[in-house]
Amino acid sequence: MKKIIFLLAFVISAGAYAQPFQSKAYKTGNYIFCGKELPIHFSYTIEKKGPGDNDWNVVAALKSPKNEAECKAAFMGLPLAIAAITEIKDSRIHKCWTMSQPAMVIDSLYALAFDPCYQAALGCAWFDDGLTLNGDYRYRISKVLPNGDKTLLNEVTVNYPGTPYSGTLRAARFRLNTGIISISYEIKDTLNTAGLKVFRSGYKENKFTEITPEIYFTMEEHKTVAIVNDYSALKEVTYSYVAVPFDVLGNLGKATTDTLNIYNFTKASDLGIIEQFDATANPEKKGVELKWKLANTMNVTSVDIYRSDTYDGRYEKIISMPAKATEYFDSRELKPATAFYYYILINNGYGKSLPSARTPAILKGTKLNILPPQNLTLAKHDRIVTLTFKRLDSDTRGYYVYRANGYVSPLTQLPLMLLSSDSVLTYNDTLPLSAHPAVYTYAVASINTSYNISPMTDRVSVKYSGGMLPVPSKVNAVLFNNTVFVSWDNVSEQHAGVSSYRVYRSIVNAEGQETVTDQLLAATTFEENSFSDSAIMDGVHYRYRIQCMGSDSTDVGSKSLPAGISVPEQLPLQPGGISVYASDKAMVISWDLPDDNSVSAIRIYRAVSGTEATLLKELPAESSQFEDAAVTRGLTYFYYIQTINKSGKTSEPTDAVSGKLL
Fold this sequence. Notes:
Blueprint: H1 2-13, E1 24-26, E2 29-33, E3 43-49, E4 57-62, H2 68-76, H3 80-83, H4 90-100, H5 116-121, E5 125-129, E6 135-144, E7 150-160, E8 169-177, E9 180-187, E10 193-202, E11 209-211, E12 214-220, E13 223-230, E14 238-247, E15 260-263, E16 274-282, E17 287-294, E18 300-308, E19 316-322, E20 327-330, E21 339-348, E22 359-362, E23 374-381, E24 384-390, E25 396-405, E26 412-413, E27 418-419, E28 424-430, E29 438-448, E30 460-464, E31 476-480, E32 483-487, E33 500-508, E34 514-525, E35 530-533, E36 541-549, E37 556-559, E38 563-566, E39 576-582, E40 587-592, E41 599-608, E42 614-620, E43 625-628, E44 636-645, E45 657-660
Antiparallel strand pairs: 1-2, 2-5, 3-4, 3-6, 6-7, 8-9, 9-13, 10-11, 10-14, 12-13, 14-15, 16-17, 17-20, 18-19, 18-21, 21-22, 23-24, 24-28, 25-26, 25-27, 25-29, 29-30, 31-32, 32-35, 33-34, 33-36, 36-37, 36-38, 39-40, 40-43, 41-42, 41-44, 44-45
Helix pairs in contact: 2-4
């Protein structure tokens, strides 16, 4: 099992999606996946209907093992076709058992969860082995509880022998070391491939037998490969190798189409030695001249040339030259003023030599750069200035940004160069802190791949307070004629960068907590150091803070300390001259209206001796009389009146007056 687990663990750690849980055929039967949940407190029951069957037959009831011995017995009972590709070791069985103990689902087994052998050992899968009839097999998987309750989970159809596994391999490269032949096979289907079988024959003998080399999986040149290390190869013998991939159920894929022939030589000179390799840029011909010299050309079949635009990057083979060639001129897709790196390899009928040293070459650019970038605009937020402009020439490599303190002062290049090939560019600059206001101007120039710099754009400018605006002091709040008058020191006389003041207001509850915090009320000019707040309510405590603003709404200083004031609660006036008298069928209550424009309604309350007074009637503010007809003769009634204002506040109640209908 070593090969399969290792590849699954490698693929999962590399970020690939793991193989889906899907029932399918293998060499001698069908693999049936029941579910991810471990059957600890229930069992999976599997019913089968084979080709030509009319009835469902129960063929398996699966439970998780109760101990490590049962777990081991499950491994020992694997079908021969599965056991042939499975490495059964006590340490692996112990690991499977230990990891499954605290788990409720097989996902907790990580990479092992995708291995059918471990699934079967823990009761989540079943091998229907020994099938002889070809055709469709139907399976019904149910969950059965200890009390007998049964729930159908899934019904699947598996065609036996099924669709052949189509995985392929490609021999990508090999290396010869002392006592070992190491071959890299590129894996095409990393999702389904679990391992590979390797077959070896003497050169041209065509007698291939399976060998047991060391196999592990890794990444080479951004691709998943299987490294096959053959330690049993004899020196100075030519071998032929063929490899076949297989999936987790042992289904074989396609053998490598090209037989790999390798001569296990003992000296590096058997493949040739590269004595000299040079790369020289030729700007007139717009290319790079490559020249090399070999110490030994015996058995050399070709020379491969590789190129990259970074020293440690990915190298691409650009051409394969004849054995007797000693030079090549490269002019394919070369960018001026860009370093390219080259190396060569020697091939013969058996393999490749060690690569030459990596040699750089830079093709000098000759293209002029006569036009500046276009549509330079500027935006500022706090201390950050954002420049936006457009690329004019596709040959542009980068941009230099220049800044000056003032409209006409000399421009100085900023240290960071903008490297980008985008059509629309942005550049962010942080303005320096200062106690004095300033005007900054900017311009931009481009640099092309020939390292020629364009003229500068026209300047764009921005005003800035310096980022150190003063904090207003001596903030005071006074209540006058139902208006709060807020004043503060005019600090704009101390700092020319102050363009206006912002007035903020907070509302404080009875516990001293701000229920409304720093609501922006107004912005005054730098010459106005006061503000009148008439939008106030009775019985509310307010706090006021002042903030200086510079060139724009994001250029602000710190807020001042608060100035607080409480607005007294103003109750409406109560009516006067209240009187009550009896008419024929009602009690008549009359009163004098108060001189208070805030009154919005009149409320009349009534009580009988020994009872609580209740609201009898709410009348419009202009009412001065009310007849109470809902009275009983002989009872004494008590009346009092309250007014209510537009804010919902009520006056003190009037003195109670009484009357009786005889």
